[in-house]
UniProtKB/TrEMBL annotation:
Keywords: Membrane, Transmembrane, Transmembrane helix. It is a multi-pass membrane protein. InterPro entries: AA-Vitamin_Transporters, EamA_dom, EmrE-like. One of its GO terms (cellular component) is membrane. Pfam families: EamA. Residues 5-137, 151-281 form the EamA domain. This is Unannotated protein. SUPFAM superfamilies: Multidrug resistance efflux transporter EmrE (SSF103481). It comes from freshwater metagenome. It is found in: Membrane.
Length: 292
């Protein structure tokens, strides 16, 4: 990995590790619908002009039905679930639960005919990851440190993420990711705008307002721009490893900035989920080369 690739990798890991911290701050005063509508409005306002400049936006528009379904599974549903859940759970736990995406993705691809998932190493990863997930959910819930319904929301969001990327890359493999995400963000913002306007609070203090702006500019727009540059540099296989850095950043920032506790559930579950996700998403070199 070159210095430039490493810089992109670390930057994406940071940008996708801080949303949980920012959402935790923003949701104190701003309703989840407004958080989702606001961050996607900002994201779309940045990404769509980029796609228009690159002359790739038309491809996303022509595949509108797939982009709309992707928006539902990737943003409309998951982002409202995550924002709502973070009223009740710590940001570090939220990041940890979302790191199960590669595990669910492996299961979904196996159901769609990818038999490489049944290799021992990947199956072992799925089992280890689920043991970690069960440990986190069980320990956090029964110890009274967390909220079971909010944990369920995070897991459902992770499932949505898992299927969304598989679906859109299968149906729109040649369409620019910036264009797809820009249009998806516009759709999401329009979807949640009426409720966001109706629920907008009479007063918002500076810290939550800045958190929402940072969510839109840094975590929603800039992160996608840098991530697709990273994919060009190192490819999707190694690019997906940024998931594990995201989670670590989310947990560390939660502890340092928000003084969130390091619970037994995190201590036991975090390494198991990360190891399981890594193994579940890992293909052998022969599989990668043989794939048409």
């Amino acid at each position: 990995m070159s210095r430039k690739s490493l810089f992109y990798f670390l930057l994406v890991g940071f940008l996708w590790g801080i949303p949980y911290l920012l959402m935790k701050v923003a949701v104190e005063e701003i309703p989840p619908s407004a958080i989702v509508a606001g961050r996607t409005l900002i994201g779309a306002a940045i990404l769509i002009p980029v796609a228009l400049y690159r002359k790739t936006f038309k491809g996303a528009v022509l595949g509108f039905k797939f982009v709309a379904f992707y928006a539902l599974l990737e943003m409309i549903g998951p982002w409202i679930l995550i924002s709502t859940a973070q009223k009740k759970i710590d940001s570090g736990l939220a990041g940890l639960l979302i790191s199960t995406v590669p595990i669910f993705a492996a299961i979904i691809t196996s159901m769609r005919g990818d038999h490489t998932v049944w290799q021992f190493k990947r199956m072992f990863g799925i089992v280890v990851g689920f043991i970690g997930l069960i440990a986190v959910v069980g320990i956090e819930s029964f110890s009274g440190n967390s909220h079971p319904a909010s944990i369920a929301m995070m897991i459902l969001a992770a499932m949505g993420y898992s299927y969304a990327i598989i679906m859109v890359t299968t149906n729109l493999p040649l369409v620019d990711g910036i264009a797809i995400n820009g249009l998806a963000m516009a759709i999401t913002s329009i979807f949640w705008a009426p409720l966001a306007i109706a629920q907008w609070p009479s007063q918002v203090t500076l810290k939550p307002a800045l958190s929402l702006i940072a969510l839109g500019v840094l975590c929603t727009a800039l992160a996608f721009l840098v991530f697709f540059k990273l994919l060009v540099e190192i490819g999707p296989a190694r690019g997906s490893l940024v998931t594990y850095l995201n989670t670590s950043v989310a947990v560390v920032l939660g502890v340092i900035v928000l003084n969130e506790p390091i619970t037994i559930g995190l201590i036991i579950g975090l390494p198991l989920v990360l190891i399981g996700s890594y193994l579940a998403s890992k293909k052998t070199q022969s599989d990668i080369v043989a794939k048409p």
